[in-house]
Write a structure and sequence with these properties.
Shape: elongated
Strand content: over 45%
Largest sheet: 6 strands, mixed
Low-confidence stretches: none
Distance between the termini: 43 Å
Radius of gyration: 14 Å
Number of helices: 1
Number of strands: 11
CATH architecture: Sandwich
Order of helices and strands: EEEEEEEEEHEE
CATH class: Mainly Beta
Helix content: under 10%
Mean pLDDT: 96
Amino acid sequence: MPAAQYDLVIDQGSDFEISIAIEEDGSPMVLTGYTARASMRPNYESGTVHNFTASITDSTVKLEMAHTTTDDITSGKYVYDVEIFHTGNDTVTRILQGKAKVTREVTR
């Protein structure tokens, strides 16, 4: 199954959080034994990377970036993706991908 497409807007200098409910065949997916990871870059080839803090609870993947992290990200357009991987059998699945827009902060 291909990764779902969803575009993000991240406000520079603000805390960011999104929760992603994972389903398999219409039912919540059992994510026992899985870990999540997510990153964004200015473009696919860029060496500059900004990592999200990713966690899993039940069938939900949560991505976060603290305001201290988003404050240091240059406003503009990025690409990102989210992967889950099973630590026991080395299975990696990209669950979400898209564009991320970081909006410029005015109040500092």
